[in-house]
Amino acid sequence: MGRLLSIDYGKKRTGIAVSDPLQIIANGLTTVETSRIFDFLDEYLQKEEVSSIVVGLPKQMNNEPSENMKRIEPFVNRLKKLYPQIPVEYWDERFSSKMAQQTMRNAGLKKKDRQNKELVDEISAAIILQGYMERRLM
Q: What mean pLDDT, rounded, does the chain reach?
C-alpha cells in the first residue's frame, strides 16, 4: 500500500503532506514554491510509492468555487496527464488555513512562528489529508 499525498495548492507556495504507509496518520512534509511543484513531485514519486493524490478544493462559504480554482484545474489536469497511474481526488479545503493557525496556537508556537506562511501551508495540507482519510473510514 502506498502513501497518500496531499497538496494545498497556492499561487506562490504549495503545502505538501503525506500519510504513513498504512494510510492512518497525515504528516506535513514540506512547502515548495508553486513554480517548482512538478520538479518536487518528480523527485518524490521516484523515491516513494503514492497510491493517491488529494488536492485541496477551494470553495467559498456558499459552496461556489473560489478564485483559486482557475489555477487548480489546469494543475490537476497536468497531474493526471503526467502521473496517469495515480488517482487524483479533490477534498474541501475550507477552513484548513484557519485550522492550521489554531493548531499552531494550541501547540504553543510563538506569534512570529505562527506567521510563517510556509508552515501554515504545510499544516493545511496535513489537515486536508487527515480529513480525507477520516472520511474514508466512515
A: 84
Q: Going by DSSP bridges, is the β-strand pair 13-19/88-92 parallel, antiparallel, or unpaired?
A: unpaired
- For the cut 60, the answer to whether the pLDDT of residue 39 exceeds it is yes
- Distance CA(31)–CA(88), nearest Å, equals 19
Whether pTM > 0.90 for this model: the answer is no
Q: Are 125 and 18 within 8 A, CB to CB?
A: no
3-state secondary structure 118-135: HHHHHHHHHHHHHHHHHH
Asked if 61 contacts 94 with a C-beta cutoff of 8 angstroms, the reply is yes
29 grid coordinates? 512534509
Residue 103 and residue 116: Cα distance in Å, rounded? 13
